[in-house]
Amino acid sequence: MADPILLVGAGQASASCAAKLRALGYDGPLVILGEEQAAPYQRPPLSKKYVSGELALERLFVRPLSWYAEEKIELRLGIRVAALHADAHEVTLDDGRRLRYRQLVLATGSRPRRLAPEIGGDLGGVFTVRNLADADAIAPELQAGRRLIVIGGGYIGLEAAAVAAQKGLAVTVIEMADRILQRVAAAPTSDFFRALHQAHNVAIREATGLAGLVGEGGRLTGVRLRDGTVLPADLAIVGIGILPNDELAREAGLAVDGGILVDAQCRTSAPDIFAAGDCANFLWGGVRTRLESVQNAIDQAEHAAGIIMGGSADYDPKPWFWSDQYDVKLQIAGLNRGYDSTVVRPGKRPQSQSVWYFRAGHFIAVDAMNEALAYALGKKAIEAGKSPDPAALADPNSDLKSLLA
Ligand code: FAD
């Protein structure tokens, strides 16, 4: 039998790649190998409606199980790829078996950064949110009256804080940087979300360094700050960023540097091996880029499928992202990398606003909070290379459609 196309990692990117390969007419053997027990599922609800209990498990799956059978995609779960032998076109599985491939796509995703055991990172009651098991472990802990400390004021931490606050926990977010969301957004967006959380009684402590976690009998009892203060806590959620799962590639001798290095066509440094999604570090406009989003996982994986099927186009992402906190839907279009000015456009409803990012006079990204039109029009304008007049944009009474026409 012919060697299969192997997709390593059973997540968003692999499911998208497999679907695209079939859509483009690949009818040969196709195998997805995933170390988790679950079929590919969507992670965004893990820190939103799934952990809060509002969304059932079945709704998380990217495709129903029957789809893999119908499409003759062999889904092998609970199996980790332990080693990759690029010259031999083979992988070794964690049960010792070897499997040949004709082409291989690394879609191994990423994992959360953790706090070291030396500072209490392994105490009971300390969680990260990456997979179903994490969310299933956190959900029963979210009981009214308990004290939660969220370590890290990025989107995942803030989403978890919102869910917990709505369940009646006393929530404190501690952020080392001067402001929450500093890595990903401009100050007006941070200000918006700080105010939103404070309105829901969440304490936001910025410029606050963590010294360690303290516990008793192996269970968390508090969080020690750099100034020596100990904040009592029943549980902590750590959201301090993610690391790409690039070890398999590194150990196989592939080029790796903060993710698996791929060219604009998703090719790694080894023949017939591609990478896509959170684990891939790609060239975009000459700059090394790693995007941690559903948009990128889907589009880049589909692009890799296109290249495997003989395409030659460069991957040109159209970044978009979202976050849900309380009744605010944040939608982000574009990538604000290197922005040098912003314009705030007040919304017409309470809790609505959009923040527009410019680099050297060119409009590059927008954060739209409860502003679906600003998001939709902004996204179109970025893709068309149009830049609105900043002064007119700041006037909430100006007509956005004509500004972006
Ligand atoms: P993953 O979905 O991580 O899948 C990779 C899989 O590969 C994992 O199951 C992993 O266990 C497996 N694997 C790794 N190594 C091996 C191996 N050696 N052998 C076998 N299997 C292996 N994005 C947004 O756009 N919007 C959001 O609102 C948003 N919210 C998020 C909230 C949370 C809590 C999290 C965790 C992520 C969120 N994201 C969001 C990010 C988004 O989910 C990821 O960018 C996306 O899942 C990446 O897909 P992927 O296929 O690259 O990786």
Give an overview of the whole structure.
By secondary structure, the protein is an alpha/beta fold. The protein folds into three domains: 5-111 and 242-308, FAD/NAD(P)-binding domain, CATH 3.50.50.60; 141-237, FAD/NAD(P)-binding domain (3-Layer(bba) Sandwich), CATH 3.50.50.60; 327-403, Enolase-like, domain 1 (2-Layer Sandwich). The protein has helices at residues 12-23, 65-70, 132-138, 155-166, 187-199, 247-251, 294-308, 372-384, 390-393, 400-403, and strands spanning 5-8, 30-34, 73-77, 81-85, 90-93, 98-100, 103-106, 110-112, 126-127, 147-151, 170-174, 203-205, 210-216, 219-225, 230-232, 235-238, 242-244, 260-262, 273-275, 280-284, 287-289, 320-325, 328-334, 341-346, 353-359, 362-369. The strands form seven sheets. Strands 3-2-1-7-19 form a five-stranded parallel beta sheet. Strands 9-16-10-11-12 form a five-stranded parallel beta sheet. Flavin-adenine dinucleotide is lined by residues 8-13, 33-36, 43-44, 46-47, 80-81, 107-110, 129-130, 156, 245, 248, 277-278, 292-295, 297, 321-323.
Properties at a glance:
globular; 10 helices; binds flavin-adenine dinucleotide; alpha/beta; 405 residues; 30% strand; FAD/NAD(P)-binding domain; 3 domains; Enolase-like, domain 1
Examine the coordinates and then state which fold CATH places here, giving the name of the CATH topology of the largest domain: FAD/NAD(P)-binding domain
The average pLDDT is 97
Distance between the termini: 55 Å
Helix and strand content put the structural class at alpha/beta
Query: Spans with pLDDT under 50 lasting ≥5 residues?
Result: none
What is the 3D form? globular
CATH architecture group name of the largest domain: 3-Layer(bba) Sandwich
Cα radius of gyration in angstroms: 22 Å
The distinct ligands, each listed once, are:
flavin-adenine dinucleotide
